[in-house]
Amino acid sequence: MKGLIFTEFMEMVEKTWSLDMVDSIIEQSRIASGGVYTSVGSYPYEELSALINSLSAQTNVPVEDLIRTFGSYLFNSYANGYPRFFAGITDSFQFLSGIENIIHAEVGKLYPDTNLPTFKVETGDDQLILTYFSEHPLADLVCGLLEGCLKHFQQKAKIERMPTPNLPGAQARFILTRQA
């Protein structure tokens, strides 16, 4: 996983709890990197999982809630850090429809060694269906990213998360339905 995920996670922990909490989860996790991350480096998913589990144990916040909250935080960080991805886009469905062809394509150019998740995108009149494929079980993060996207564009939509037991490599399917 790209280090940007780790640096943003540590920043969220520091802003939400404290720098002492960051130090504590690093120490408790006993991760190989020692918690030293650069945004352009690559690190094992297992380290992120260990940090999140440690944070959950210390805060009594369920892992799923922490991951979803981080997803929303991460979307806001992306929106602030990469405004070119948002240029000319005024709608969350429009933005999300371009996740593979625009965003992941650009990220792949910048970081060719990264292993990005993929999304199958299906559009309808008032619906958007995203099927999330990844080797990492981070569907809660995707849910948080979707919530962050809706908040960013100030739109209301119902998000339904469906299991994908018969779809190899798929972690979840998200159905977004516009609401007035």
Provide an overview of this structure.
- There is one protein chain.
- Helix content is 51%, strand content 16%.
- The chain has 180 residues and is an alpha+beta fold.
- It has 2 domains: 3-61; 69-178, H-NOX domain (Alpha-Beta Complex).
- Strands 1-2-4-3 form a 4-stranded antiparallel sheet.
- It is globular and about 50 Å long.
Count of individual helical segments:
7
Query: Superfamily at the CATH H level of the largest domain?
Result: H-NOX domain
CATH architecture of the largest domain: Alpha-Beta Complex
Strand content: 15-25%
Give the integer mean of the pLDDT values: 93
Separation of the first and last Cα atoms? 37 Å
Give the class-level CATH name of the largest domain.
Alpha Beta
Task: Give, in order, the helices and strands.
Answer: HHHHHHEEHEE
The major pleated sheet works out as: 4 strands, antiparallel
Which structural class best describes the helix and strand composition?
alpha+beta
Are there runs of 5+ residues with pLDDT below 50, and where?
Answer: none
What Rg, in angstroms, do the CA atoms define?
16 Å
CATH topology of the largest domain: H-NOX domain
